[in-house]
Amino acid sequence: MKPGRNDPCPCGSGKKYKHCCMNKVSKPHAEVFDDVESMVAMNPDLTLDELNVVMQHKMQARNNRPHPDFCGLSPTQMANWLYAPLDELNWVTISTPDDLSGSPVMRYLALILDEAMQNDGAFKATSKGNLPAKLVKQASDLLPEFAVSQFERHISISEFAGSNEDKFNALHYTRILAETAGIIYRRSGRFHVKKAAQKLYQTQGVQAFFKPMLETVITRYNWGYFDAFKQDVDLRAFWLFMLWRLQSHASPDQLIDDIVTAFPDLLRQLEPDDYYLPEKRLGVLIESRFIERFLQFWGFVTVDPNRFAAEDRKPPKVQLQPLLAQTFQFTL
User: Fold this and answer.
1) What does the pLDDT look like over 199-226, one tens digit per residue?
2) Domains of the chain, residue spans
3) What is the full DSSP assignment across 250-318?
4) Residues 6+ apart with CB under 8 A from 173
5) How far apart are CA 301 and CA 327, in angstroms?
6) Which residues, other chains included, contact 47 with Cβ-Cβ below 8 Å and sequence gap of 6+?
């Protein structure tokens, strides 16, 4: 839903929408009013209906004009990408791939569902309320089948393997998403798969949950769940714009520049400290929350975790995986 003028801006700046991102999207509107004033001065006999028609045409033309700060998107396109629900997005088609074997999140979800289906729809949780060791072991054993395995790391620091759920971030992330999406729930020390979800899984397989899980991570999941940054920015509203830009150039550094150019107000809430300027801190958030713990967890991209170890640090690049193009097709 599009925010009201006095609502908090979705960029997370803490300011009202009318004093933040609305300025960039609505600036063309003010220019239209200036044009109308000039037209009225030159054509004082125009009726109100005629003025309304002229104003509508001018407003549409301005809103549909490519904006250089938006990498060529128009204000109309950007507004749709910022505020529209998943099923109302324009200029992009989101598909469920036939083969989800390359997606860690969806493979882990299938393991959870299979374990439940083999035990009348539920299985026992650990004393801490986590997934059992047997399932964690099965999920860890899947790592060689994922593109990210080319950057294999010791299990103690791996995001895609662990001795228990607390030490296995990608699996824990999947479980949290599945609960938030309403696919599973925990009660009386057991994980249960909802009856409706059981029927869907039996008839459609794990593909039935691809879009519900995707919508959950975009709209309901807290992207800062795994970190504890003192200064925060909610990046969820910009996910599709960031994905479109990253798909075009595969450069995190360029992506950060794109975001700062399009939404400079994001930097205002990230005060400089002894280590990072605001732009650098924003870059850390984008890389860790969006690229690594969203796109990489889903199997859309891979990122070399050793890129900072080299003496001569090169600009980071992500490797786009086939699943990304199979899921998102842009028509711009």
Assistant:
1) 999 999 999 999 999 999 999 999 999 9
2) 104-220, 236-330
3) --HHHHHHHHHHH-GGGGGGS---SS--HHHHHHHHIIIIIIIIIIIHHTSEEE-TTTTTSSSPPPP-E
4) 105, 225, 226, 293, 297
5) 12
6) none
